[in-house]
């Protein structure tokens, strides 16, 4: 089989403690057996791997089939071992009945270098697993953190990982390592909770001044009520340890006030007990007794175990103050309470509330009273309980004390027997201690190696982070330059746009001014011609005709003035204006021409716009420079036709003498005047087309080819 490096995924396997709780809520007993299924495959090809050993610790055994699958009977919390000659053994704790999937990745042909490891899962899963194994296996817990650290993707997660690692070391009493990891956590993210834990670790490591510095740096204004209680309790612990009892009393008292106000029950219990211990050290026995009794009452409101622990402290207080009868009575109550506790849980030998210890202390209290007859049975019970629990330390002490009791009571033969048992117990304890020292050395070596690996990971991470920060700083500088250039270009573009807009507005303003000026030039020209006509009527004493002409002229002037401020007016208004104007001109030259105005009925004249006074000059030119010089009756034809969709043509055609002949008849002064008029019209059209995108077009041509050719003007208007 190919050499393998594990990329192991328990895709549906690792479920948190909630899974177990859920099974309990569903009524499934945790000790019930059930079957889990699994498969082992290569991650790239998904080819199954056969012959992989799958075994439950102390239980069932199987191996994968040719399809890479297996089934095995397990219970909740069972540990499954997955092993093969080509990769190291994998341990998996059963949390649910979900299927297990193991994927392995090929890395080379050298079988020695092939490895297997858990496929990368989430950082949260790794930390949850570390917390689960915290009190079960320090090595496993640390390993999960080591596996989880590379998956950390933020300083917050990094800080959390090292905080959990510090918690693990604190539980296993590796206080120097706990300090190291709490400090690393704080270097990533500084939090009050971790500072409080660091101060506690310093205290347990006998670094009392360092502990005080941390507590003093934490200002109470920035702390929650619970954190304030922990800080004051920590300060009290340090002061009590360095025999500054007045400061310890003050700190414990402050903490007790806050805990009482905020009803933090378990802290009220602890602080009563600790404050009582300090008062007892100071010789204030009565105050101490009241506080220790209070701690027992408070603990009883929490649970039985806490109550018994406080009773043990109260009994120790009675022993120190030589109140042996009261101590004996208290410890007898404690033994009865222990019987209740042991119905639901197992009490570890390290606990202060074991039966062997309480029986020993009752026997010791009787011994101190020289009541050896009462002392011996309790010391024997202590030895019996110690044998059951394999507690050699208590057995040694109880056997020694029993030997002394037999000696003091004069029973030397029993004293000889118990002394021999004492010597034997001491030898057994010596051997056990040697084993524990050896195990502790291996444990320390193992966790030191893991800690070194984790420290290396953190160093590598900081180095990588430093390189990344340098790279990011360089990128930021480059981005700043790029953004500056972009900003400069944007400002230039904005400036250019604003200038363009300003120029356009100025041009528009100039055009509007020019149009206004041109219109103002057109009106006097028209009025001058009209007044000449009135003057001719008056000079011929044709008063009636003059009055009629003036009446129509006033209407025309009113319409011209109304439209004089507009760039465009509706075509219908312009038609009304030219009808009125042509009527006036015909009135003056009745014997010179006739006229017609035709409008295509299919044209919606209200939909079209036209510059005011645009057509009038062309009609005026047709009459004054073409038709009035004609010898016979002339014709002026004005028509409005549809050229195409949205476009109309306004044609002003006459059969007058034509442009060429008319020009030859003009004086030099008239030619200049005419040129100025036509130029005015051209300018207006040009400006309007600039402003309104070629809305108006004017074409002038001869009208015919024989005789009086006349003139034809075509004005093209586009719909808006």
TrEMBL record:
Superkingdom, natural source: Bacteria
Xref: Gene3D superfamilies: Histidine kinase-like ATPase, C-terminal domain (3.30.565.10), Tetratricopeptide repeat domain (1.25.40.10)
Entry annotated with the keyword NADP: no
Residues of the signal peptide: 1-22
Pfam families for the chain: His_kinase, TPR_8
Molecular function GO labels: phosphorelay sensor kinase activity
Keywords: Membrane, Signal, TPR repeat, Transmembrane, Transmembrane helix
This protein's GO CC annotations: membrane
Domain Signal transduction histidine kinase internal region: 515-593
UniProt name for this protein: Tetratricopeptide repeat-containing protein
């Amino acid at each position: 089989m190919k050499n393998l490096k594990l990329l192991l995924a328990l895709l549906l396997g690792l479920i948190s403690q909630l899974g177990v709780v859920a099974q309990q809520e569903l009524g499934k007993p945790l000790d019930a057996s059930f079957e889990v299924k699994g498969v082992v495959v290569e991650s790239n090809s998904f080819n199954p791997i056969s012959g992989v050993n799958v075994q439950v610790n102390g239980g069932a055994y199987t191996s994968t089939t040719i399809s890479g699958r297996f089934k095995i009977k397990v219970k909740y919390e069972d540990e499954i071992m997955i092993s093969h000659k080509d990769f190291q053994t994998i341990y998996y704790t059963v949390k649910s009945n979900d299927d297990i999937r193991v994927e392995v990745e090929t890395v080379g042909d050298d079988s020695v270098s092939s490895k297997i490891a858990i496929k990368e899962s989430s950082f949260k899963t790794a930390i949850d697993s570390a917390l689960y194994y915290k009190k079960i296996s320090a090595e496993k817990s640390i390993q999960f953190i080591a596996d989880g650290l590379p998956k950390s993707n933020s300083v917050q997660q990094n800080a959390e990982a090292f905080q959990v690692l510090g918690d693990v070391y604190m539980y296993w009493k590796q206080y120097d390592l706990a300090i190291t990891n709490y400090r690393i956590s704080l270097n990533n993210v500084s939090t009050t909770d971790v500072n409080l834990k660091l101060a506690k670790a310093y205290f347990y490591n006998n670094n009392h001044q360092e502990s005080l510095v941390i507590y003093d740096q934490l200002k109470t204004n920035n702390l929650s009520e619970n954190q304030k209680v922990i800080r004051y309790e920590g300060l009290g612990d340090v002061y009590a340890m360095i025999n500054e009892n007045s400061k310890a009393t003050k700190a414990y008292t402050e903490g007790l006030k806050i805990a009482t106000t905020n009803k933090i029950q378990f802290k009220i219990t602890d602080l009563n007990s600790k404050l009582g211990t300090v008062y007892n050290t100071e010789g204030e026995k009565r105050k101490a007794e009241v506080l220790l009794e209070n701690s027992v009452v408070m603990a009883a409101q929490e649970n039985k175990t806490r109550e018994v622990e406080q009773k043990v402290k109260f009994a120790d207080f009675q022993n120190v103050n030589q109140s042996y009868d009261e101590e004996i009575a208290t410890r007898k109550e404690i033994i009865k309470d222990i019987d209740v506790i042991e119905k639901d849980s197992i009490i570890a030998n390290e606990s202060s509330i074991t039966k062997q210890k309480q029986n020993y202390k009752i026997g010791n209290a009787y011994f101190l009273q020289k009541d050896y007859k009462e002392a011996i049975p309790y010391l024997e019970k202590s030895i019996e309980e110690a044998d059951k629990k394999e507690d050699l330390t208590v057995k040694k002490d109880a056997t020694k004390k029993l030997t002394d009791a037999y000696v003091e009571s004069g029973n030397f033969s029993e004293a000889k027997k118990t002394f021999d048992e004492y010597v034997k117990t001491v030898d057994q304890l010596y051997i056990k201690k040697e084993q524990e020292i050896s195990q502790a050395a291996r444990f320390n070596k193992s966790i030191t190696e893991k800690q070194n690996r984790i420290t290396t990971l953190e160093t590598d991470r900081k180095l990588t982070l430093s390189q990344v920060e340098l790279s990011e700083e360089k990128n930021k500088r480059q981005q700043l330059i790029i953004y500056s250039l972009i900003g400069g270009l944007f400002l230039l573009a904005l400036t250019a746009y604003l200038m363009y807009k300003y120029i356009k507005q100025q041009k528009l303003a100039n055009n509007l001014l020019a149009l206004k000026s041109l219109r103002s030039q057109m009106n006097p020209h028209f009025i001058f011609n009209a007044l000449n006509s009135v003057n001719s009527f008056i000079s011929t004493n044709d008063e009636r005709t003059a009055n009629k002409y003036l009446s129509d002229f006033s209407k025309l002037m009113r319409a011209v003035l109304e439209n004089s401020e507009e760039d465009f007016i509706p075509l219908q208004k312009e038609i009304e204006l030219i009808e009125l104007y042509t009527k006036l001109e015909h009135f003056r030259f009745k014997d010179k021409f006739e006229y017609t105005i035709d409008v295509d009925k299919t044209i919606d004249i209200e939909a079209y716009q036209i510059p005011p006074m645009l057509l009038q000059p062309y009609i005026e030119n047709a009459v004054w420079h073409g038709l009035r010089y004609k010898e016979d009756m002339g014709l002026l034809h004005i028509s409005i036709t549809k050229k195409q969709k949205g476009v109309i043509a306004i044609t002003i055609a006459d059969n007058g003498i034509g442009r060429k002949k008319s020009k030859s008849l003009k004086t030099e002064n008239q030619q200049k005047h005419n040129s100025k008029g036509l130029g005015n019209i051209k300018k207006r059209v040009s400006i309007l087309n600039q402003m309104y995108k070629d809305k108006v077009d004017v074409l002038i041509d001869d009208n015919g080819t024989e005789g009086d050719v006349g003139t034809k003007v075509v004005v093209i208007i586009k719909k808006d």
